[in-house]
Amino acid sequence: MLRPDLTARVGSLTLPNPIMTASGTAGHGAELAPYVNLAALGAVVVKSLSPDPWAGNPPPRVHPAAAGMLNSVGLQNPGVAAWLDDELPALAATGARVVVSIWGRTAADYALAAKMVAAAVSTSSARTARSIVAVEANVSCPNVEDRRRMFAHSCEGTAAAVGEASDALSGTGLPLWAKLSPNVTDLPEIAAAALDAGAHAVTLVNTLMGLALDPATGRPRLGGGGGGLSGPALHPVAVRAVFECRAALPDAVIIGVGGVSTGEDAAELLAAGANAVQVGTATFADPRAPGRILTELERWCARHGVTSLADLIGRAHEQ
Fold it and tell me: What is the domain count for the chain?
């Protein structure tokens, strides 16, 4: 049985395979290194970073759901500067290809975070600088310039944040990805706005908004109130998001994420039109999940006669 070629082309990037970690689920640095060969993955997407340190939400921060989990971590992070100094060197030493996820409360925050990453790429040691291969703008977070709505809930908000980050990265050669929300009525329209504003790819999707209550008290079970639903329950939502955006935007570069627990789940997102796939919540239950899913995807492709990833990507649109 021939070994399939899983080389993934994600816009200007060529990765050895399409499997990445998802932001917020693999830590800030090399936390997963004892469990999975990070260099063997397509890329490692780190937890979202803001220009300055951010404390996040009060506990409790996670709550189990019937087919996944609710989380309300609140984007806790040490800030870009501290991450560059304290976390990136160890992650780069594993040989991982690093995607830096950034977020902000204002559009200007995205510009500042992106500028900090851009400066590091131009001044860091060669090994550290080479490890950063892309920046992912997490625009699926509160926007205090628009009554705390998410940037990704409107074309205007998305374009503002993505445009600021894109301008800040100009000249670095780093592609910019925009991570979008499924909590909208017309996701292809917002994806188009992100691409028009300078994103090289869109990451589909972030969590669904949810709420868990203690019926005895009527109070939320999470310290931050509502939270984001992830895990297997999100997977069909992610598949549809990828499928619809690929149909509407046939030339777009798409990274699929949501409820990927097996190699077949990854294959489904690829067939829907994703160029690559991120593994998130499954990592909490099994820190080896990204490596296991990569192996399962390779075996799935071999069993189904898929000799090249290009033969699988967008297969659902060929019917």
Answer: 1
Active site residue 141: yes
Among residues 266, 255, 268, the alpha carbon closest in space to that of 297 is found at 266
Does residue 143 sit within a domain?
A: yes
Residue 213, domain member (yes or no): yes
Task: For strands 176-180 and 227-230, give the pairing.
Answer: unpaired
**CATH number of 130's domain:** 3.20.20.70
Per the structure, the complete domain to which residue 158 belongs is given by 8-56+76-217+230-318
Residue 88 contacts by C-beta under 8 Å, 6 or more apart in sequence?
29, 98, 120, 124, 128, 131, 132
Is 92 inside any structural domain?
yes
pLDDT digits (tens, 9 = 90+) for 67-106: 999 999 999 999 999 999 999 999 999 999 999 999 999 9
Tens digit of each residue's pLDDT (9 = 90 or more) over 288-300: 999 999 999 999 9
> Which is the catalytic residue, given 141, 155, 245, 301?
141
Q: Is the pTM of this model over 0.85?
A: yes
* Sign, CA torsion 119/123/124/129: positive
Q: How far apart are the first and last CA of the chain?
A: 27
